[in-house]
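Intended use. Records such as the Chromosome partition protein Smc entry shown here are meant for training and evaluating sequence-to-structure methods. They are not intended to support clinical decisions.
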Amino acid sequence: MYLKRLEIKGFKSFPTKTEIVFNEGITAIVGPNGSGKSNISDAVRWVLGEQSAKSLRGDKLEDVIFVGTETKRPMNYCEVAITLDNSDNKLDLGFSEITIKRRAYRTGESEFFLNNKSCRLKDIKEILLDTGIGKDGYSIVEQGKVDEILSNNPVNRRKVFDEACGISKFRYKKQEAERNLKHTKENLERIDDIYIEIENQLKPLFLQQEKAVKYLELSEKLKVVEVNSCIKEVVELEAELDELNKHSDLLGSQSDEIQKQKCTLDKAFEETNMEIENIDEGINKSQDYINTIKSVISQKDAQVNLINEKIRNCKNDIHRNKEEIIYIKEKLNNDKINLENLINQKDEKEKVINELNIDIKSIESNNKDSREKIENINQNLEKLKDEIVNLLTNKQESTSKLSTLNANIENINLRKDTIDLDIKEIKYKIDKNKEEVSKALVKLEDKTKSMKDLKNNEVKTNNDLNLLLNKCNNIEKQIQNSKYSINDYKSKLNIYVEMENHYEGFNKGVKEVLKNKNLQGIQGALGQIIEVPSKFEKSIEAALGAYMQNIITNDEASAKFAINYLKKNNLGRVTFLPMNIIKSNKIDTRNIKVGTSFIGLASDLIKFDDKYRNIIENILGRTIIIDNIDNAIKFAKENNHKFKVVTLDGEILNPGGSLTGGSLRVSGNILSRKRLINEYREKIELLKVEIDKLYIEKKEIDSNINITRENLKQISMDITNLDKEFIIENAEVNKFKEEIKSLKVSVDKLENEKDGLGSNLEYILEKSKLIKKDILSIDTKHDENKSQIEILTNELKEYSSLYEDDKLKFDNLNLNLVKHNQIYESIIRDIQRISKESKALEDKYLQIEKSLNDKAIETSKLEEDIVIEETEKISLNKQLIDNTRSLETKKLSKESLKEKLESLNKELKNIDRQYIDLKESLFKVEGKIDRLKSNKEDHINNLYEKYEITLDQAIQMKDDSLDVDKRYLENMRREIRNLGNVNLDSIKEYEHIKERHDFYSEQKKDLEQSIEVIEKLIYELEENMKKEFEINFNKINENFKFVYKRLFGGGHGELKILDKNNILESDIEITAQPPGKKMKNLNLLSGGEKALTAISILFSIILAKPTPFCILDEIEAPLDDANIFRFGEFLKELSKDTQFISVTHRRGTMEAADYIYGVTMQEKAISKVLSLKLKEAEEIVDII
């Protein structure tokens, strides 16, 4: 596999699509500084997923998009694609060619493609794992990568070796597995929380769903009884409805008879009304027709007036046209006379102009001869003048050369003196630089010691930071554990609060009395009003026994009312303790034998409100608490079995000698739960306070961590700065040494120069004699030319005088000609203007004559129209009179019909009154029917609303044997009410919670198994990584020893793992000993030695695990020519298995290359790639 093709578009300095085809072997990319050749390696790094703008030599990622120039607009996106030849199927993807493409937009979006199919960067990274290809691998090596390999940062160094040893794939899988493990553990924690919460919900829901089932059973019984009661009432309503419907039918028939009479009268009324409407319609039509005739007559009058107006206008137009014809005829006669005069003037002017033209031509001929003679003389004068100028120039040049030679002679003498001084000064500088070298070496030793102190301080600060981080992690765990404890206590608290609110542990009758807030004088159950310390709970509970269920009341009346309530509702039996009756019955402990086992009276060991003292002392005042059963028996015997004795474990010794013991059933936690509620609340508050303290402590530790990190950062910066100073000092030493060498070369050059100055002086003196001879010859020739110029100047004056006289005559004639031409042109313009005006007047004359005839015809036609309009007016006036008479006749007929209509209206009103009386009776009956129907519908609707059944369905449920007595119904309803608040959803909720309980139980189990599997996978991956790394690292180390000797021509290099017990995280030490030198710290190596050491490591890695291609970006720049030669030779050997693309400006690397590409910048900020031959590449390097 190798890199076959690179396509760039819009990336950095490549705005247009640029394609570079690569072959196997070595390809060199050359070009001047700033031409954009390193942008090619940046393009490959970017397409392989580089996300750091700094690594791409920019400030932000969008800087890689072409920004534009003065002539080229900026681009909105860039695109880079690399094509890999995969014919050897190294990447098992089933393609012989694999193209990886990346596209980025200025808006920030970025996308990747694999063979033109969209993919993730993660997919590309996974495909290229363990191939060496990638932004973190060793397929792209620039000067920064060389620094990384040799840097003091172990992380950067490890990245290269991990990729080279083939464990990056395993490490990637391990990181994925660790992420999955963390995610699975987090899921398990969440599921544990949910599982505990569900378990806490399950028991209360079970009790609720039992109550809901009972409620549904009672409701179903009540439904049957209520349905039968409803059917009975519906049947009674239907019988009453039948009677009312019969009476309604009778009233309806009477109403129909009256309705028939009313219809007859209505018909007559309608017919009469129709006749009146017809007459009204005729009247309206006649009136409309009359109005139309009047309107037409008015229109005719207006039309006649309009025609008369048009006739007047036509006559006026005819008069105006006749006057205009007279004016046009007069104007045409005047224009004709003027035109004849102008034509005569034109002929005269043409004659004068012809005569002037003849005179001008004669003078022009004379002038031409004079001008030719003047030009010949001027040409000869110019030649002589040019020759004089050349002679003077030559003389000046010779004089200048002579001065220069004289100055050179003087300079040579001065230079000899200067060289002597320079040699003396340079020798002084050499001595001075030797002193500086000694001083710099002393400084280097001091900095080495400071570096050691800083690194020791760095290790100590790192240890301090780790301790703080561990402490911070422990606090975070404590906070998390406290939060878990709070959640646990809250869950338990909610359960006990719910039990307290629902009176769990009390008998049914006790619950009902305590729940019923309408019962007056109820103080609470005895178990509720006392507080018992936890160590006495068993003994007090045993001592109280059934008394815990007793209810305290204010008086016996309150107790009696509560008993009646229980009896009436059949809710069971309860013992009541009226506070006004029960008296204290407490032992006087002075009269009993108290031993060491005696703890106290039961009434003295608990807390209660003082108002309940008589009741508490009556029940517990004669009960003695002893520590254990043996001491209790002994105590009872000593006191003749007079008192009730109870042990801490709940065993009872009754008065008279009987014993009660065994396992004690906890009575619903009545005594303990109040205590537990308080305890849990206190614990929750304490934990919250503890969390707040931990947060404060964590904040302080975080502050210390930040300070320590800042200190560590400062130490690291100090180390870096010291490292830089060390490098600078080292560079200064080398600089002084180089300067000494350079100064010695300068002394040799100056002495050679001094020897050459003597022979140069003799040559200059000989040349000075020849120049003086040339100057004498130039002066002689100059005098001869001056005499010739005087003769020609006199001839020129004579011919110039004749020429000027003829020119004056010529100008006067020309002026006269121009004047006559202007007059001639003016006459022509006047002739054309008058001719045009006359033609226009003739056309207008013809138009006016035509208009006169048209107006006469129009006037005649309009007079005929007036006669027609007047005739039509007479006919319309006659129609108007006839229609007015017909309208009066219709109005009289309408009045007669209106009287008949009034009579019919009176009869109709009488019939309406009878009909209304019947309707009122019918309305009352129908109202009663509607009420009964509504009542029936209400019953049916109630059935549907309450039980969602129809009447037919209800009839099917009818049971005649059932007692539907209202008292029986009320008892059933009371029994349902006594159930209290019923959560019907609890049945489904319980099933749902149970399902969730089972589901999360299974999920918990699956997650626990998954954690085991992932942890096993991580262990196996670590073992594989160790084996793989150790094998490959040893290969690279052996290669490094060989390559180092080969490239350095001797010496020794070695790689070491510092921590053998942790090879996957251990730092890797590089030792280097150049030939003829002692083993050195890497920082003490020269720039060239460092570069060659890093190149040796790189070549060792490629030998151990060849990468398909490797891009080298000027990594050999610091090497001298001898090392460049060895570098090139070794590169050729490696190119058999690995394709190399080298961005370079070194001749030795180019000579090793099989192919060369040149990068130029013919246009500012735009790079262009050219295929070059070796000679062309060398020329570019020479330019650099």
